[in-house]
Amino acid sequence: xxxxxxxxxxxxxxxxxxxxxxxxxxxxxxxxxxxxxxxxxxxxxxxxxxxxxxxxxxxxxxxxxxxxxxxxxxxxxxxxxxxxxxxxxxxxxxxxxxxxxxxxxxxxxxxxxxxxxxxxxxxxxxxxxxxxxxxxxxxxxxxxxxxxxxxxxxxxxxxxxxxxxxxxxxxxxxxxxxxxxxxxxxxxxxxxxxxxxxxxxxxxxxxxxxxxxxxxxxx
Length: 219
Fold this sequence. Notes:
By secondary structure, the chain is mainly α. It is 59% helix and 10% strand. Helix 6 (112-121) runs antiparallel to helix 7 (130-140). The termini are far apart.
């Protein structure tokens, strides 16, 4: 296998897990790791994403005043690539500038191009071509497939744990009644219950919507 294929095979399980945990698209995690570490060939201290901090001092290239210059800086150190992936997700989640730039809203829509542009807007890297390079990697290697894989897995594991058929029917009947009362606007929800496919998160969302409409809130 090529260096690129080896890298993707190794990091993809971590990226999928992180998408399910934090919402950071797997394709973005893989592409950033590939770009920042040269497909895993340059990751001192298992730092795949070039996250700065303490633990080691390295030289790096940064785009300053219209040109790339070599600088020395401190970078974080990890026990493994998995640890680096986890910290990468946490880093994006705890720094509000990424959410403000729309990164997580784009991830929620499985929009890897929008997410890549949001990273650049938020200043993840100084390279003015950073977003286009990420998008190029994702599209060349079909990495968005991992985004869809993570989303499907999340839906499957989130399905309501209802043991008996009569309980699913009762839930379907309840949603059918709410639909007829106008408290939910899409009969698909009742159909999902009858077909044993309704998820915990969907039911929680429906409950919130019904409560709001019963209270007169126009949602």
